[in-house]
Amino acid sequence: MMWVESTTSPQNVRPLTGKQSLFVENFIRNGGDAANAAREAGYSEHVAAHATRDVLRSNAVQKAISVGLAELRERTYQKLASLAGQALDVLAQIAADTTAPATARVSACNSILDRASFARGAEAPVIDGTEQELDDILASI
Known about the structure:
Elements: E1 3-5, E2 13-15, H1 18-29, H2 34-41, H3 45-49, H4 51-54, H5 59-96, H6 102-115, H7 131-140
Antiparallel strand pairs: 1-2
Helix pairs in contact: 1-2, 1-5, 5-6
């Protein structure tokens, strides 16, 4: 059961009904299609057809959707962040693969530089060091 803050309740917390909880879950899952979310939650066809007016007006539902979307954004960010290292490793492997087509290698290098905030045409930072030190830095990336 989902719980949301309520500005009208003395306890400041009010549970959503079962249908409201299902509506919120379906609304978030389906990308914001209120009519389908209402149908999937078990609301009548009449309510589903007017879900924006009838269900979304509830402050509790609005708050639950807001909280749910924030949680979805956070989970998505965490998942992408966890995959970023793997993606960089793949790009580095392609860039270093002398048997890969030149276009693939250049594309991988461009992607690495773009992710490192080196825009095309922008000045790259100057790194002092010997050629060997620079090779060691590049090898560690």
